[in-house]
């Protein structure tokens, strides 16, 4: 009976170790994925009923950024193609960073798709849009 108990404890330890190891591998995987997802800030100006999304895209050229509306989603894709090459008599250096980015933002029915405007400056993409005129906030005078 003691042998069976020890074997069960060994099996439990192996299962527990496998679970912990799997969780650690999953954390590492998602950490690596998160490094390649550009950070985005979403701001809502309640008085004007406008929205601004700022996405950090350092090292990306303007011509390598695409902003589109597909159904109910604002889609931002970009590709970083950065290469730094130095050739000297006594050494050669080549550094490069390549990667594709993809972000999708849900647009509710009260967003005016025609108002969407995007500009890129200093490594930051700024996308602005507003609510449909009939859905905008308005103050009602009390009589």
Kindly, what is the distance between the CA atoms of the first and last residues, rounded to a whole number of angstroms? 87 Å
Give the oligomer, counting copies of the same chain as homo and different chains as hetero: single chain
Instruction: Tell me which CATH architecture of the largest domain applies here.
Output: Sandwich
What percent strand?
35-45%
Approximately how much helix is present in the residues? 10-25%
What is the overall shape?
flat
Order of helices and strands: HEEEEEEE
* Overall pLDDT level: 82
CATH class of the largest domain: Mainly Beta
Strand count, sense and barrel status of the largest sheet are:
4 strands, antiparallel
CATH third-tier fold name of the largest domain: Immunoglobulin-like
The helix count comes to: 1
Major sheet: arrangement of strands: 1-2-7-6
* Overall number of strands: 7
What would you note in describing this structure?
- By secondary structure, this protein is α+β, with helices and mostly antiparallel strands.
- Helices cover 24% and strands 43% of the residues.
- The chain is flat, with a radius of gyration of 25 Å.
- The N and C termini lie far apart (87 Å).
List keywords for this structure.
three-stranded antiparallel sheet, 2 domains, Immunoglobulin-like, flat, single chain, 143 residues, alpha+beta, four-stranded antiparallel sheet, 1 helix
């Amino acid at each position: 009976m003691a042998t069976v108990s020890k074997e069960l404890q060994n099996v439990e330890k192996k299962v527990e170790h496998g679970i912990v190891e799997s969780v650690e591998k999953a954390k590492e995987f998602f950490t690596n994925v998160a490094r390649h997802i550009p950070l985005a800030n979403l701001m809502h100006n309640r008085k004007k009923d406008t929205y601004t999304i700022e996405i950090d895209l350092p090292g990306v050229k303007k011509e390598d950024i695409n902003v589109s509306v597909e159904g109910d989603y604002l889609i931002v894709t970009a590709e970083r193609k950065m290469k730094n090459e130095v050739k000297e008599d006594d050494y050669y250096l080549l550094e490069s960073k390549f990667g594709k980015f993809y972000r999708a933002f849900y647009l509710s029915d009260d967003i005016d798709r025609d108002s969407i405007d995007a500009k890129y400056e200093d490594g930051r993409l700024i996308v602005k849009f507003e609510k449909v005129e009939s859905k905008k906030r308005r103050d009602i005078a009390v009589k």
